[in-house]
C-alpha cells in the first residue's frame, strides 16, 4: 500500500500530488478497472491476443516506415504547426481568419 509522509515545509497539495504519482506508478487504478467486473477466461484470452496483435502491427509499421517523429518535434520551418486546425484555416497567420472578415474591421 503506497504511503506518503509529509515532509517538513511541504504543502499538503504537493504531498497529495506525490501520493497520486506513487499510486499511478504502482498500477492501482489500472488494477481496479481490471477487477471492476468479472471476465470469463475466454474473454481475457481474446483481449490479450488482440493487444498482442496490435503491438505486433505497430512494430511492423514502425519497422517499415521508420520511427515516428519525437513528441514536440516541429516539422514547419517557421516553428508553427505544420498541420491541424491552423493549417486547415490557411496557417497561423494569413489566409481565412476563421470567419473574421476585413470588411467588419473597416479595412
The coarse silhouette is: flat
The largest β sheet comes out as: none
Number of helices: 4
- What pattern of helices and strands is seen along the backbone? HHHH
Low-confidence stretches: none
Number of strands: 0
Structural class determined from secondary elements: mainly alpha
SSE blueprint and pairings:
Elements: H1 12-26, H2 28-35, H3 41-65, H4 85-88
What descriptive keywords fit this protein?
single chain; 107 residues; mainly alpha; flat
Characterise the protein shown here:
This protein has helices at 12-26, 28-35, 41-65, 85-88. It is mainly α. It is flat and about 55 Å long. The chain has a domain at 9-64.
Task: Tell me briefly what this model is.
The chain is mainly α. Helix content is 49%, strand content 0%.
Amino acid at each position: 500500500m503506497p504511503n506518503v509522509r509529509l515532509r517538513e515545509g511541504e504543502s499538503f497539495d504537493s504531498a497529495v500530488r506525490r501520493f497520486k504519482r506513487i499510486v499511478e506508478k504502482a498500477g492501482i487504478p489500472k488494477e481496479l478497472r481490471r477487477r471492476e467486473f468479472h471476465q470469463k477466461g475466454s474473454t481475457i484470452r481474446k483481449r490479450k491476443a488482440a493487444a498482442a496483435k496490435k503491438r505486433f502491427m505497430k512494430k511492423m509499421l514502425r519497422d517499415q516506415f521508420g520511427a515516428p517523429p519525437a513528441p514536440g518535434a516541429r516539422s514547419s520551418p517557421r516553428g508553427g504547426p505544420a498541420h491541424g486546425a491552423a493549417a486547415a484555416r490557411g496557417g497561423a497567420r494569413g489566409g481565412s481568419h476563421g470567419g473574421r472578415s476585413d470588411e467588419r474591421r473597416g479595412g
